[in-house]
Design goal:
The complex is a heterodimer of chains A (about 350) and B (about 80). Chain A is α+β, with helices and mostly antiparallel strands and about 350 residues long. A six-stranded antiparallel beta sheet of chain A has the order 15-14-11-12-13-16. The longest helix of chain A is centred in the first third of the chain and has 15 residues. The N terminus of chain A is likely disordered. Chain B is built from three helices and three strands. The relative contact order of chain B is 0.20. With about 80 residues, chain B is an alpha+beta fold. Chain B has one domain. The mean pLDDT of chain B is about 90. The chains are: A alpha+beta (about 350), B alpha+beta (about 80). Chains A and B meet through strand 13 of A and loops of B. Chain B: It comes from Pedobacter paludis. Chain B: It holds the Pfam family PqqD. Chain B: This is HPr-rel-A system PqqD family protein.
Chain lengths: ~350, ~80
């Protein structure tokens, strides 16, 4: 049983989580759930919120008590709110944690409506979301004295030559929401442009390539300028999509200070991930700011700072002290596992949108 | 030559740099030298120990020592 300091009574906590696509470019949902189960114990009810029928975590019944299908972000806030109201009548959700960049805008927009039916969230504002957007990141860095690689936002593939001449190859071609390709020449740059255009739409970001060590930082801001938790992780095994498949927690005061400065500059509220490139001189470049927990978030739990639990506590209005220590040398090595189910389960979720 | 204070070493020669996440393996004699360095022994003290304990010419030890220190420096393990 979980005791909320504000309510002064015991009740089983119900938390809804999105990002259940534990595939080769995994959403953070399953890792967030693992962290919450470890933080709150067994008297926790997890409600999965899925967009597609093949999101693997839907069928992991030891992790998720019930999953509901929700409308795509493109369906708009009205459709999302209607669906969540229906779910809320059945499930009495206490806290909802969205885990996708693309869905955050809508969830932030309906924050008050959700609260009015008892669903608490702990999300950044639209302004905070906008500032760290890939398209605005360079200006954000210039304003706050963060090192950000130079970039150009383009809408036509014929415009690739302009940043290419300015920055030289290799270049990073990045999608609006996800995915990025390192390209060595104009031909590959055009291919990458069209792939990303087809998948995520326009614009496309052409970014200067910075050579160095890839480090990610998972953090949690309290919305008042304080970093409740900061954990830096060095990528040890990187997939073709640039995702960390193995990583290790490291000790570096400069990285911690950078994350704290980011939270202070933005008054960031909620989970975030800074993608950092450390060059040979030790300069730290912010490559991206993700406005939610990363898929490797369970490593924060393993190293002593349970960020998803702390976020839930903040959402519930509980006092959460800043973490001060963590274990370095904690590693994660991700793996793939074939979960076998009967087709009836798949049919049930496909037909009724619930499982 | 001084090993960075945060470098972790084990008896079997495993070296871990928590600042970078880098890890290395070393052979027996290299691990032994690291252990002496962790105890803050001086270069001369360590070399004397090695000469007393093993059958090695001083000139050979000097060459191997320089080579090893260069490796430690390149691995970013020394406090310069």
């Amino acid at each position: 049983m979980y005791v909320s300091q504000n309510q002064q009574k015991s009740k089983a906590l119900t938390i809804a989580v999105t990002g259940l696509n534990a595939n080769d470019n995994p959403g953070p949902g399953l890792a967030v759930i693992r962290a919450l189960r470890e933080g709150f114990g067994n008297e926790l009810r997890i409600i999965g919120l899925a967009y597609e029928t093949l999101e693997p975590a839907i069928y992991l019944k030891d992790q998720i008590d019930k999953t509901y299908q929700i409308p795509y972000p493109s369906a708009g806030v009205k459709a999302l709110l209607e669906r969540l109201n229906y779910i809320q009548e059945k499930e009495n959700i206490d806290v909802l944690i969205p885990n996708f960049d693309a869905e955050l805008y809508n969830f932030i927009k309906i924050e008050k409506e959700l609260l009015s039916v008892g669903i608490k969230t702990f999300l950044p504002s639209h302004k905070q979301l906008e500032e760290r957007d890939k398209i605005n990141l360079k200006a954000f860095g210039d304003k706050n004295n963060f090192k950000i690689p130079a970039d150009e936002v383009i809408f036509k593939s014929s415009n690739i030559d302009i940043p290419a001449e300015k920055f030289g190859y290799p270049l990073l071609v990045k999608g609006k929401f996800y995915d990025a390709y390192i390209v060595q020449n104009a031909s590959d740059a055009h291919k990458a442009f069209h792939k990303l255009h087809a998948k995520w739409g326009l614009p496309i970001i052409i970014q200067e390539f910075i050579k160095g060590t890839e480090i990610n930082i998972a953090g949690l801001g309290d919305g008042k300028g304080n970093a409740i938790s900061v954990i830096p992780m060095r990528k040890m095994y990187i997939t073709e999509k640039g995702k960390a498949w193995a990583g290790i927690t490291i000790e570096d005061e400069k990285l911690i200070a950078l994350a704290q400065d980011f939270v202070k500059a933005t008054n960031w509220k909620g989970g975030f991930e800074l993608e950092i490139m450390k060059n040979d001189k030790g300069d730290l470049y912010i490559m991206e700011v993700n406005p939610r927990f990363p898929a490797w978030i369970y490593l924060t739990v393993a190293s002593g700072q349970n960020q998803p639990k702390a976020l839930v506590d903040l959402a519930l209005g509980n006092t959460v002290d800043e973490f001060s220590t963590y274990k370095t040398g904690k590693m994660f090595i991700r793996y793939a596992w074939d979960n076998v189910i009967d087709v009836e389960e798949f049919q049930k979720f496909s037909a009724f949108g619930e499982l | 030559m001084k090993l960075k204070s945060n470098i972790a070493t084990s008896e079997n020669g495993f070296i871990f740099n928590p600042a970078t996440g880098d890890s290395f393996t070393s052979n027996g004699i290299a691990a032994e030298i690291l252990a002496y360095m962790k105890l803050a022994e001086t270069e001369q003290e360590i070399k004397k120990r090695i000469l007393d304990k093993y059958e090695v010419e001083p000139s050979q030890l000097e060459r191997d020592w320089d080579d090893y220190m260069l490796q430690l420096k390149e691995a970013n393990l020394l406090d310069l």
